[in-house]
Amino acid sequence: MKSITFLMHNIYGMGGTVKTVSNLANELVKEGHTVKIISVFQSKSEPYFELDHRVKVVSLIDYQLKVRNFVSLCANRIRRFTPLLKPKYLTAHEPGLRQYSSYVERKLLRAIQQDTSDVIIGTRASYNILIARYGNAKQWRIGMEHMNFTAHSEAYRKEIVRHYTKLDALTTLTSQDRVQYLQVLPHTPVFIVANMISEKRYNMMKKNQIIAAGRFEYEKGFDLLIEAVHAIQDDLREEGYTVQIFGDGKEKEALTQAINYLHLQDIIFLRPTTQQLSTYIAESKVTCVPSRNEGFGLTILEAMNQGSIAVSFDGNVGPSSLIRHNENGFLVPYGNVEKLGIQLLDVLQNLHGHHLKAIRDAGYETVAAHAPERIYQQFNHMLQTLEHRS
């Protein structure tokens, strides 16, 4: 069995990529692989999602307020006030560039170059580029993409194409994204390794509520959901519906202001992140994923697993790859807030009986296709293909 290292931004934080890698790491050790996660940053004492005890976690920069972390904390504080400590090799297109100093970068490059696993896997574009450029040629260097290709800026796409040619393989979450990458990387093997779902299914009475969850950032589109709710607020009030949005992030204050400005405080509630999200989804009639960009949409699978009807935007690679309109969920035209509100209301008011059961059953079938053993088969197919080529 191959030994595998994942290079992660912060395995201790909340997010779809964190959950995906945690699930995959757990499944890999169950299948007999040796797995290590290098977490560039550590923000808490324990990883956010539960990891099998056989998964080894190594953090490079510990941001917890402890005396032993003094150097790490100071290096990045100074970085904010002088260009002297800015990174030299990390792409300028890295979304979290301000978190990286030359000190962090040196530790990151050293970790890549000194890793001795059979396989090293980056989990964001900037790490994939570093692995391609500086990784050990004796390893299989694999880039794992959690964003669809067109979501990157044009300049970033050019840099990605230039360096991804040096990777031994690339994985995407969807077949649509695989096609896009094959068009620009015809000589790089591209495989689908979708997100897996392993949550327990709860049989709970559904409440009159819509749920949404994710990072409070522009790309997640929670402002669009607020606009959609504003348009149907009278119907929601009359029928006693609420909207629960779970998450945290830099857009939290803006979202709060929008809710207050539109006088929706009695309908929309912002909730903190939770590790019991599945239970809240299980008691919600509808799950809305209003993302402007969504590489996959793990929340959609979680909704289907709990029998909560998923509603999202079409023309968005992740949701469009999972949801078949009026079969296992509902899609509305991309960015159309009015149609989103109408669709949410229609599901709440008119989806009953056999139609509701048919959509839930179809959702369960979609979930089954993303069970841990099915996704491991995809991952193992990649390893076997690379073995035959080597």
UniProtKB/TrEMBL annotation:
Pfam families: Glycos_transf_1 (PF00534). Its EC number is 2.4.1.52. It is an enzyme of class 2 (transferase). Keywords: Glycosyltransferase, Hydrolase, Transferase. GO terms for molecular function: hydrolase activity; poly(glycerol-phosphate) alpha-glucosyltransferase activity. Residues 205-351 form the Glycosyl transferase family domain. The keyword Metal-binding does not apply. Gene3D superfamilies: Glycogen Phosphorylase B. This is Glycoside hydrolase. It comes from Staphylococcus microti. The gene is tagE.
